[in-house]
Amino acid sequence: MHYGAETARIGDLLQYVYSMVILLIEHILTEKAPVPRGHYAQATTANGFVFVSGQLPFVPGDNPVLAEGLDAQVRQALSNLREVLLAAGSDIGMLLSVQVYVPDIATWPRVNEIYREFIGDPAPARTVVPCGQLHYDAQVEISAIALCGNAAAKDADS
Predict the structure, then answer these.
(1) Coil, helix or strand for 89?
(2) What is the pTM of this model?
(3) CB 3.0-4.6 Å disulfide test: which of 6, 49, 141, 151 passes with 54?
(4) Could you tell me if 87 and 32 are in contact, meaning their C-beta atoms sit under 8 angstroms apart?
(5) Phi then psi for 47, rounded to 5 degrees?
(6) d(C-alpha 48, C-alpha 41), whole Å
(7) Alpha-carbon Rg of the chain, whole angstroms?
């Protein structure tokens, strides 16, 4: 048997398929969450996924201020996360992975309790990172990866 011609046709077909796939990267920006103060997007989407930058517990607005107290900060950071997800065509129920940064691990039990109430079940994969001081002396920062757009709708139909 001679596979040369068949292999070439398969290679041509794969090359054609790859040329038809367009990687679309979209940068997400919503005023319902704090506008970035640095050189980054609130989130980016690509291939059915949304990658949300770390959300600090700022109350959005023209002059954003940190929410006061641990409970309020955790809820605000989670609310900011949800608003960015919504702007990207996603939501809390489509979360795949969440990263929670806390400068004081002693606050973790309370952070986890509020997180559980907000996120619900089933819970996504999660990493908790005890870290040093966060920017602006925030008590929590949350980043995430979720499904979005057509991929999320397709997954929900399955």
Answers:
(1) coil
(2) 0.82
(3) 141
(4) yes
(5) 50, 40
(6) 17
(7) 20
Q: What is the 8-class DSSP label of residue 64?
A: -
Asked if residue 76 belongs to a domain, the reply is yes
Nearest to 81 by CA among 140, 153, 144, 133: 144
Residue 25 pairs in a beta bridge with 46
Helix (H) or strand (E) holding 17: helix 4-20
In a domain, 10, yes or no: no
Any domain includes 11: no
- Number of Cβ atoms within 10 Å of the Cβ of 119: 18
Q: What gap in Å lies between CA 34 and CA 31, rounded to an integer?
A: 7
DSSP-assigned letters across all residues of 98-130: EEEEES-GGGHHHHHHHHHHHH-SSPPEEEEEE
Q: Give the residue numbers spanning the domain of 150.
A: 24-157
Q: CATH code at 46?
A: 3.30.1330.40
Model confidence over 55-98: pLDDT tens digits? 999 999 888 899 999 999 999 999 999 999 999 999 999 999 99
Cα–Cα dist 42/54, whole Å: 8
Half-sphere exposure of residue 90, counting CA atoms within 13 Å on the CB side? Answer: 29
Q: How far apart (Å, rounded) are the C-alpha atoms in residues 102 and 107?
A: 8
Instruction: Evaluate whether residue 6 is within a structural domain.
Output: no
How many domains, the chain?
A: 1
Mean pLDDT of the chain: 88
